[in-house]
Amino acid sequence: MFLSLYFLIVPVTARFLQTAYIDKDKIVHYTKEAVMRTVRLYHPVLKQNQDCFFVAFLRLKTGSAFMQGLFLRGDTMYYITSEASFDGAHFLRNYSGKCRNLHGHHWLVRVHMRSYALQRDIQTDGMLNDFGDLKKTLKDLCDYFDHSLIYEAGSLRKSTLACLAAEEFLLREVPFRPTAENLAKYFYDTLQAKRSEIYRVEVYETPANCAAYEAQ
Ligand SMILES: Nc1nc2c(c(=O)[nH]1)N=C([C@H](O)[C@H](O)COP(=O)(O)OP(=O)(O)OP(=O)(O)O)CN2
């Protein structure tokens, strides 16, 4: 009873003190200071050397922004953005207009991340996510499409695909009509599975035309 009260009171109070952090494995740690401030608040006679006990038990796995928000919500958040681009051709099946023709774009993909807390690793201390790491993850995905023909599954005859393949053209089939909106969702879903702090992806077909997909 006494212990369960602690496990309820300490995280809730630490949340309001906003002195917790999340490590690279998405585990929330309540800092020694936060825990001890809370412990002293509720049990002023506890000695300093007992803090390890509480710190060890106050580790919560937080894979989602929801969990982070639940335990770390404050007035402020950190945001970072990174972008990469690729050249790719596409066409819109059943579109009445010039975009039904095979044509190319210099696609720009911009990724946004947010978090209530920063990392505390030696390498990534003070970072939401290492720019280098985010840049590489995004570049790998852009490279997959670079200088390819992005086409919707079923939108080209088998014989056409065979001819294009025989010419050794790079073909990238997608299970959706390759609009900027659908590509933004594709990039979001693929990247979000790797980095849960990603909440928005923008895809520019041209410098003037942009579609975005965002978590609500
Ligand atoms: N909401 C969307 N509308 C359109 C998309 C799309 O992905 N989402 N895509 C297209 C075509 O792919 C087309 O290439 C882009 O449209 P458009 O503005 O006509 O192209 P340009 O900017 O190159 O136009 P110019 O006037 O030739 O400069 C259509 N719509």
Automatic annotation (TrEMBL):
InterPro entries: 6-PTP_synth/QueD, 6-PTP_synth/QueD_sf. Gene3D superfamilies: 6-pyruvoyl tetrahydropterin synthase/QueD. Coiled coil: none annotated. It catalyses: 7,8-dihydroneopterin 3'-triphosphate + H2O = 6-carboxy-5,6,7,8-tetrahydropterin + triphosphate + acetaldehyde + 2 H(+). It is an enzyme of class 4 (lyase). Its EC number is 4.1.2.50. Pathway: Purine metabolism; 7-cyano-7-deazaguanine biosynthesis. GO terms for molecular function: 6-carboxytetrahydropterin synthase activity. Pfam families: PTPS. Belongs to the PTPS family. QueD subfamily. PANTHER family: 6-CARBOXY-5,6,7,8-TETRAHYDROPTERIN SYNTHASE, PYRUVOYL TETRAHYDROBIOPTERIN SYNTHASE. This is 6-carboxy-5,6,7,8-tetrahydropterin synthase. It comes from Anaeroglobus geminatus F0357.
